[in-house]
Amino acid sequence: METWMSRDTPNFLAIRFVKFCVVTKLFLAPTRRLFRTLFLTKPMQSTGIKRSHHLCLPRLGFPRLVASQRAHHPRMTAGSLGLFVASVLLGGIPLSGHLSAQEPGKEDASSQSQTQFAPGVVTVIPPAPDPKETFDGPLTLQSMIDAHPEISWEATGDHTDGRPHFDPRSRTLQAMLKQVILRREIYCFEFSFKPLRQIYLDIPRPDGRMQRKLVQYMVYRVRYRGGDMRPAADDMEKPIYRRIESVSYNSRRLFPMFVLEDHESKKQFTDQILPTAVDRIAIREQITAPLYNNVEISRVKVPRTKDDDAPGVWGVATWVDVDPNVDFFSVNVFGLTNAFEQDGEGADAPYRRKALMLNFFRPGDSMDQLSDRVRFGVPAYEDEKDQSYILEKYGLDKRLDYRWVFR
Predict the structure, then answer these.
(1) In this predicted structure, what is the pLDDT of residue 206?
(2) How far apart are CA 328 and CA 374, in angstroms?
(3) 169 near 163, Cβ under 8 Å?
């Protein structure tokens, strides 16, 4: 078994090369010229002025290094060059793997190192799929019955009472269309978010000019935990769905929509796409991972993970022209699940999607809105009348920070 200092190892060869450069100083001038060409932002000048020489190594993936200042002679000595070559040779053995991980177009947004926030900064809402959401019915498909009148049984010579001779009436197509159960597979994402905040930004107008506006935004993170639910039958020849099975996939996609709802004026504000705001928000919120708007995030696959420390995929929802007098409001997050409800069928039947409702309140007014802190949850009051008044605003019977609703 070879050791670390074996003659066949790259470390031994690197040390021999460094000693060769330091002792003999052979090939020093060509090496210095190559070093200047590849790594220096500006050629070194032999001046008597103290200056810092910035060694930029973007091609090797190294961070920016700053050499020590030299007042007497800024030229690089053989010993310093030898130490640099040693650091490259000894620490750069897995260099090819680092380069391949940083190639553009091959980065996975959910696997990059991200900022670790203190406990309580990011609020996590776990997924909440319900087995009852895997089916609808029994429903009457009246549109199908009206489109095919030939399936109805009528009194004829062979069927005087308008029913089959041997099968029960419930086995006819017309009767079966009145007892239809629709089954489906449902999924649900884990949703995390940072506090809702405001920022003044320059927003482009339709005429090409910039206009300074107050932007409300929410930075969020989604993770796919798996555990999707779907109906299962033991015998597919006699499909009787008596159980719900759990399935998981390698990844899923998210198609979100955020609606800010004011509980006092009953106004609703749908999130808007502001490409110029994403970078500013990412810097302010210290998001080192890629930050997507609600359209870009739909192109990113959210991988399945069971790790509580998994980075996930980050996005941001932005609103402009929100009523400055809003105090009690909620943010409805659509797209976290494919569950829905529908009463009946057809164009007139109401269709409601499942959404996550996050309740907020902002104690403040329209003056100096940046200093107003938006708080998560429903405010609490000792007076029962005041508390009842606030709960009525949110349409709640008791204080809830969030809930799943169908809208």
Answers:
(1) 86
(2) 10
(3) yes
Q: Encode 229-238: b = buried (16+ Cβ within 10 Å), e = exposed.
A: bbbbeeeeee
The per-residue pLDDT for range 105-153, each reduced to its tens digit, is 445 555 555 667 878 889 999 999 999 999 888 888 888 888 888 887 7
Quote the CA–CA distance of 331 and 269 in Å, as a whole number: 9
Based on the domain organization, do 156 and 67 belong to the same domain? no
- CA dist 221 and 281 (Å) reads 14
Specify if 331 maps to a domain.
Answer: yes
Length of the chain: 407
153 with 224, same domain: the answer is: no
Q: Could you tell me if 353 and 239 lie in one domain? A: yes
Dmax (CA) for the chain in angstroms is 118
- Residue 170 lies in domain: 141-178
List, in sequence order, every beta strand (DSSP E) within 224-312: 228-233, 241-247, 251-253, 257-262, 268-270, 291-292, 301-303
117 is a domain residue: no
Q: In the structure encoding, which two tokens stand for residue 211, read together? A: 């206009």
Q: Per-residue confidence at 319, pLDDT binned at 50, 70, 90?
A: very high
| Within-domain flag for 109 | no
The encoded tokens of residue 148 equal 């095919």
Q: Please confirm whether the linkage preceding 275 is cis (ω < 30° from 0).
A: no
Which one-letter amino acid corresponds to residue 401? Answer: D
How far the first Cα of the chain sits from its last, in Å, is 67
**Count of the separate structural domains present in the chain:** 3
Token pair recorded at residue 35: 């070093």
Taking residue 384's Cβ as centre, other Cβ atoms within 10 Å add up to 8
Assess whether 25 and 93 both reside in one domain: yes
C-alpha distance from residue 274 to each of 49, 106, 162, 213 (Å): 47, 25, 64, 12
Asked if residues 168 and 95 have their Cβ atoms less than 8 Å apart, the reply is no
- Phi, psi dihedral angles at 83 (to 5 degrees): -65, -40
